[in-house]
Design brief:
The chain has 508 residues and is mainly α. 47% of the residues lie in helices and 3% in strands. It has 22 helices and six strands. The relative contact order is 0.13.
């Protein structure tokens, strides 16, 4: 696999550099650490799973795929349903996970973190591809250079087992679970809540496997609720907070890149917000210049217009030239606020929406509406609190507005399963703007909500132009270095065909 080759390159580079003894001796910094400490590995691992890509275009690709954002620089493949191939780069983290466990032998906090990071990183690779190496992954030092692929079912079961172990490790750790934590400062209880939130996310994505006796998703979900620590507020969010420092700035900011000018709001999100009289439109977007030049106030819903993400690129460019679009709110891009807003990976609001769906499905007791309302309010509060003064276009989301929002007839749950599921997933979709990377796509793929526009005449999905693809293809590196194992996995899953419309186990 690709990580094996990178490892060999590192070894070769080390051998070459070892011949420069006198140079290294002369230039040794006596204040620099002479070995990698567990705390340093912990910092690296957390940053790698919490961050978004550094550059603007890559950082919004999930929004292009989920039709939250339209891109004007050129016809973007993800916007037009061409997913391409998925890198295996996340496997490089497994070496660090193994090193962390070995360097901190017997330290439950670090062991819990290593288990969590492995489960987290490989889970998303599996969601994108299907079968992947799991049991043999990261065992290059043991001589396993061509890891066998596990079935996606076995991967998910192994992930759930590792998350259970991670929770046990954090429970057995000290109050400060470990050092080097850039999110929670080692707070054991917050890590337990993070693991619980992730277990619930994995399980809700198994909604199509409710009848699988081995997975036993309903019982597992109820057990996690009964025995796990749940997030109680936004203060428990597993999120990365950016800073006004080189390499640590918000990725979607003009100090980071000059590409922010190409991002346009899609009609899917803008029309949804307008239909629901949702003030988040004023926090997410800038009004259309064409509309304000007509005299429409920037605090009027009429000043906001989106671009259909399925129209041909010429129409997108035309709308951009005519200023008939909304750019993302300047709070994201302004050089006065290079820290942007925190990036949530696992959050309280999302957890409550997952609980609402589980309740709707009968997996747990209670009222779906109660969880749903709390999820909406948590997201609105987060958005308001993360926005600097003066960027809400005079439409501030007061506590009164936030508390009354779920009472809107178009938002309130009614007891009809499909209608309520649509509303729950649609509220998660709204909350995912520049947050919760790729979750909106995974939810759409699993539930079909919200309904997204598909235009066969502009779709780059050549074999199924009337569909948004259901997966990425495997990387070319796997074909080059682990072909035998990959061919076996393709035959097992997709009749030997590696294409973007193959239906993986979790979706069947």
């Amino acid at each position: 696999m690709k990580q094996i080759n990178k490892f060999l390159i590192i070894l070769l580079s080390t051998a070459i550099l070892s011949g420069c003894d006198s140079f290294d001796h002369i230039n040794t910094n006596p204040d620099a650490p002479t070995k990698v400490l567990p705390s340093m590995l912990a910092t690296h691992l957390i940053r790698e799973i919490a961050k978004k890509d550094r550059y603007v275009k890559e950082s919004v690709e999930d929004g292009l795929l989920a039709k939250l954002i339209v891109w004007n620089e050129s016809a973007n493949g993800l916007q037009y349903n061409d997913l391409g191939r998925k890198s295996f780069d996340s496997y490089l983290l497994l070496t660090n996970c193994n090193d962390l466990v070995s360097k901190a032998a017997g330290h439950k906090g670090y062991e819990g973190l290593a288990l969590f990071v492995k489960a987290y990183a490989l889970y998303y690779i599996s969601l994108d591809l299907g079968d992947i190496p799991y049991r043999e992954a990261g065992k290059g030092e043991e001589g396993v250079y061509k890891a066998k692929y596990d079935s996606q079912k076995d991967v998910i079961l192994a992930i759930l087992d590792d998350l259970d172990k991670a929770y046990e490790c954090f429970s057995a750790a000290g109050e400060t679970a470990f050092e080097g934590d850039i999110v929670f400062s080692g707070n054991r209880e917050k890590w337990k809540k993070t693991v619980t939130a992730f277990r619930l996310k994995v399980l809700i994505n198994l909604s199509r496997k409710e009848g699988d006796a081995d997975v036993n998703v309903k019982s597992r979900f109820a057990s996690v609720i009964q025995n796990g620590s749940l997030m109680q507020s936004n203060a428990d969010n597993f999120q990365l907070t950016y800073k006004d420092q080189t390499g640590m700035r918000y990725p979607f900011n003009d100090l980071t890149s000059n590409q922010t000018k190409y991002a346009m709001h899609s009609s899917v999100l803008i029309d949804m917000l307008k239909d629901l009289n949702d003030y988040r439109i004023f926090y997410y977007a800038e009004p259309s210049r064409a509309k304000t030049e007509e005299g429409i106030a920037n605090d009027s819903f009429d000043a906001y217009t989106g671009v259909d993400p399925s129209v041909n690129y010429g129409e997108v460019s035309k709308a951009h030239g005519a200023n008939l679009f909304c750019s993302p709110n300047f709070r994201y891009t302004s050089t006065e606020h290079p820290e942007g807003e925190p990036l949530i990976r696992l959050g309280y609001g999302e957890q409550q929406m997952i609980l609402a769906e589980a309740c709707l499905r009968g997996w747990i007791g209670g009222s779906p509406a109660e969880y749903y309302d709390k999820g909406i309010k948590a997201n609105m509060t987060f958005t308001r609190d993360a926005t600097p003064d003066g960027y809400a276009h005079n439409r501030v989301m007061t506590d009164e507005y936030i508390n009354s929002y779920p009472e809107n007839d178009k938002i309130r749950l009614t007891g009809d399963f499909e209608s309520d599921l649509n509303k729950i997933i649609s509220q998660k979709y709204i909350a995912s703007f520049l947050q919760y990377t790729y979750e909106a796509y995974y939810d759409y793929r699993r539930t079909g909500y919200p309904v997204l526009p598909i235009n066969p005449s502009t779709s780059m999905n050549s074999t199924a132009p009337d569909r948004i693809p259901s997966r990425y293809m495997y990387s070319t590196d796997e074909y080059a270095y682990n072909r035998e194992s990959l061919d076996e996995a393709l035959k097992r899953q997709y009749d030997g065909n590696d294409n973007i419309n193959g239906v993986m186990w979790i979706l069947r």
